[in-house]
Amino acid sequence: MIGKKVQFALEIDRDRICAVHADVQRHRVAVRAWCCADRPDEIDPSNAEAVGGWVARELARSGMPRSGAVIVVQRAEVVLKRFILTVDEQWRDEDLVSMVRLQISRQIPVPMEGTAVDFVQLPQSVSPTAPGADEQQGRVVRVLAGALPGDRLNWIRETAKRGGLGVSRIGLRASGAAAVFAETSIAHDGPILGVAPGAASTECVIVENGRLLFARAVDLPLPDDADMLPDYAQQVAVEAKRTWMAYRANPDSSEVHAVSVLGHGPVAHDIGRVCAAELEMPYERLRLSAAIEFPPEMTDWERSVALPLIGLMAESVFTETTLDFLHPRHAPDRAATRRQRALLGVLAAVLVFGSFGAFGWLRLGDLEDRQQNLEDTLGRARVSHAKFVVESARLSHLEHWIQPSVDWVAHLAWLSDHLPSTQEARLDGFGGVMDGEVVFTLPRGVRDITSGRWSSSQSVEISLGGPAVSRDIADQFRERLLGSNVYRVDTRGADVADSFQLLLHTSLGSPADAVVPADDPDAGPEGEG
Prior knowledge:
Layout: E1 5-12, E2 16-24, E3 29-38, H1 48-61, E4 69-73, E5 79-86, H2 95-105, E6 116-122, E7 140-148, H3 150-162, E8 167-172, H4 173-180, H5 182-186, E9 192-196, E10 202-208, E11 211-218, H6 229-248, E12 259-261, H7 265-279, E13 292-293, H8 300-313, H9 315-318, H10 334-353, H11 355-401, H12 408-418, E14 429-441, E15 453-467, H13 471-482, E16 488-491, E17 499-506
Parallel strand pairs: 1-4, 3-13, 4-8, 9-12
Antiparallel strand pairs: 1-2, 2-3, 5-7, 6-7, 9-10, 10-11, 14-15, 15-17, 16-17
């Protein structure tokens, strides 16, 4: 950035606004004015007109401009995702727009209509290559994408309009925090975990080489009461550990090297040391050098709250400009380019052949554009369908794999209920084995796996034995099992007069699953056999 540019950043929370006015130069940011104000009770936070009027009054009271505003949105208001996209050799940067929007549409629970989606491409060196990626051929592209829902975007625009603000950008507070952490992160070989306290919430960010990789927000405002700081620091440490665990769950994440806190004075150092102890990693002091000039009357609390806003205004000073939900990236309208070329041809045809020829060219161009759009849509749909079929097959296989189960306690209880009395026989041996199988079958002559059928089966084998008073008692017990409609019974070894050794076979997980014959209601596991 050459020369000086006057900017101000504004963060509007439900209960408070914070604003910072600064001169942004090539290598320096000088803070000129600031304000933090609580929302009056009579103002409805959902009423854009009332909030806009209140913001205008507070800015005027603090001597701030109304043009060039950078509106700051919190992490909780934005869907933020990191994607690893696989592309072919002929991919172009503009192709990422459609790919990112498709991925984001699967992640947000709100309609895409009106939602602002922006993204930044992460360098290949930011994180390790994902397993199976053909990075040498340029097939892997990593992006950090964010989506601001349409209703929140419309509310911000209406509030700015009612407050007479000229908005130049809508940025993410976590991006501003990452920009201030840039110098600290560059000093490490890997990412750092940064904590950015705020007046309404605290955000935890993962930053590497000045780039935001991951962010979480929690409803923990930075207290201005010194007595509350120890509890606040402990809560922040817990959330920082959760952020680290969530980031490490990503397959392409790398080890975090240190913890740093966005703030001034001993408060920031105390928070950082507690977080470092919780995560068992070093604490790194924030490196700001002389890049930011604060007025001496600003307190440590005000400077800590203002730093993410300053970072968002001056991303070009610390690193590179990232997400902008007011001017998100758009895919080039290639159909419009083709139509323009067709119109030039139509103009020449009109001069030569008249209106009839012109109509024919226009119609042909529209049909070609429609055909191309349909072909593109069909190609994307085929890819999505193939992925869906594979995932569906995996899910069906897993579901049928876990279906076979045996309630051994129920089998043992049922057999115990049907044994002769203890004076006649006794069970002194019981063993069981279950064998499960998952089978996938296709109709003859069919190769489409969506027409196939998954099935699972199980076979249960139970061995039992013990002494009996007589052979008749053992035979009666065997006949009772045969008539129970639960087991198929085989005798193990030779029949002897004073014992029984049986091998039972069934496919039932529990005797209660047996079908009772219609003509014998007393048969089955609940009858007398």
